[in-house]
Amino acid sequence: HVIDIPSLKERRQDLRLLISMILQDEKINPARKVEYISLDAINYLEEREYSGNFRELRFCLSQGVNNAFSEGVKFMCVRHLLGE
After folding, report:
1. Could you give the CA distance from residue 37 to residue 20 in angstroms, rounded to a whole number?
2. pTM of the predicted model over 0.70
3. 17 CB burial (10 A radius; 0-12, 13-18, 19+)
4. Is the C-alpha dihedral spanning 39, 56, 35, 79 positive or negative?
5. Residue 1: band (very low, low, confident or very high) from pLDDT cuts 50, 70, 90
6. 9 has a pLDDT exceeding 70
């Protein structure tokens, strides 16, 4: 069987749901290190191209959680996604 799953580029309307789902994943955001994500960060994620598709989105959010946590904050901003 072959399953055709559309790329994130074709499913932009699902990105906010996917972002929320990923941030609830205990492997990505253990013990809810990050409780909030800024609208600017969501907009940034919506504008990105994801050549790695879902895994790239998941990795980006994982890095953002780690960067925010290392800063000692419970919200994620664009700078956390950029690694600044």
Report:
1. 9
2. yes
3. exposed
4. negative
5. confident
6. yes
28-70 residue pLDDT tens:
999 999 999 999 999 999 999 888 789 999 999 999 999 999 9
Q: What is the pLDDT of residue 84?
A: 65
Q: Which residue has the tokens 């925010």?
A: 68
Place of tokens 């253990």: 30
**Calpha distance 74→78 (Å, rounded):** 14
- Entry field: residues in the chain: 84
What is the residue-wise DSSP string for the chain? -------GGGGGGGHHHHHHHHHT-TTTSGGGS--EE-HHHHHHHHHS--TTHHHHHHHHHHHHHHHHHHHT-SEE-HHHHHT-
